[in-house]
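In the lab's daily routine, each protein ends up as an entry in a very long ledger. A line of letters takes care of the sequence, but it says nothing directly about the fold. The fold becomes a row of whole numbers, each drawn from a learned catalogue of backbone shapes. The protein below has been through that process, and both of its lines are reproduced in full:
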Amino acid sequence: MTHTPPQTLSLPDLEQVYDLLAEAIGAAPADKTELLLVKLALLLAQDLGDRERFASLIEVALRDL
């Protein structure tokens, strides 16, 4: 089995993703933003298809909060 390196986004694409996420958070009811983020994380985990990689990314996200 060959390992395919993860795709990365260009800086402009990453900025657009940030803007999309900010807009979605702003559009969600205030008491539902956590649910939105959990649903998004689960959808992305399913799309990623790699539980260990997802766990690693959680560790990265937790750094320096």
Observations:
- The two ends are 36 Å apart (CA to CA).
- The chain has a mean pLDDT of 94.
